[in-house]
Amino acid sequence: MSIAQNIETIRQDLPASVKLMAVTKQASVEQMREAYAVGIRDFGESRIQDAQSKQQELADLPDLCWHLIGHLQGNKVRKAVQLFDWIHSVDSLRLLQQIDRVAIELGTSPNICLQVKVLPDPDKYGWTIPELLADLPEIHRCQQVKISGLMAIPPLGLSSTQTIEFFERVRDLSHEIDQQQQLSFQLSELSMGMSGDYRQAIAAGATIIRPGSIIFKHNA
User: Fold this and answer.
1) Is the Cα dihedral 190, 50, 127, 75 positive or negative?
2) Based on CB atoms within 10 Å of each CB, which residue in 1, 46, 81, 184 is the most buried?
3) 3-219, what's its fold?
4) What is the mean pLDDT of residues 33-54?
5) Annotated domain spans of the chain
């Protein structure tokens, strides 16, 4: 199957309310152009250096939206704010506040997803639920960034039912936060679901899914 056919297969499962972001960390620029040709405009990268190189090669496509989905180190915040429209992997208050300060300096307003761990997972970054709830007053004080939603990655080894329950817990947490008074943001986006579990994520209320290998695998 071609990239276009792979994308069409995903779109058949996709409600109009869900955005398809193609994760391109293992895709070539040529493959990205194939995805672009069938309407993909949102691309997700894990590494800043890779994104910068691809952005230069795709500079003739002015309507791309770039998403950072990988762990962001503090010493790379400035470059991330310069390169990305969305940062999905904001996993601590300290990192968020640093992004906010840099965004003020640069006069930009990146969209932010707060990465949460609703189940214990030593292999994932992110706020635990109690940590995130405790940090809400400080998150509220951020001036420049757009706090747009939550991002989550389930632990490995969950069953399909457990995966749906995981995503539902993220959705419920989002609703719980939105019901709190006097916050300066609404968590309208749920960034969850990758190649192996995007259907479960959609069933639980995802608004952005992040497949990669199932789009590009047959053309690698």
Assistant:
1) negative
2) 81
3) TIM Barrel (3.20.20)
4) 97
5) 3-219
Asked if residues 72 and 112 have their Cβ atoms less than 8 Å apart, the reply is no
Which band of pLDDT confidence, cut at 50, 70 and 90, is reported for residue 68? very high
Q: How far apart are CA 100 and CA 78, in angstroms?
A: 10
Q: In the chain, where do the E strands start and end? A: 19-20, 22-23, 42-45, 65-68, 86-90, 111-117, 127-128, 146-151, 189-191, 208-209
For residue 200 the two structure tokens come to 């479960």
Q: What is the DSSP code string of 86-142?
A: EEEEE-SHHHHHHHHHHHHHHT---EEEEEEESS--TT--SEEHHHHHHHHHHHHT-
Query: Which are the contacts of 39, defined by CB distance < 8 A and separation ≥ 6?
Result: 7
The token pair that represents 118 in the structure block: 């609703």
What would the two tokens of residue 109 be? 């307003």
Residue 196 tokens read as 């192996």
DSSP tag of 51 = H
Q: Calculate the average pLDDT of the chain.
A: 96
User: What is the spatial distance between Cα 146 and Cα 143, in angstroms, rounded to a whole number?
Assistant: 8
Q: Span 37-43, mean pLDDT?
A: 98
Cα–Cα distances (Å) from 198 to 14, 118, 132, 144, in that order, read 10, 18, 24, 31
CA-closest candidate to residue 193, choices 174, 212, 172: 212
To which residue do tokens 């047959």 refer? 218
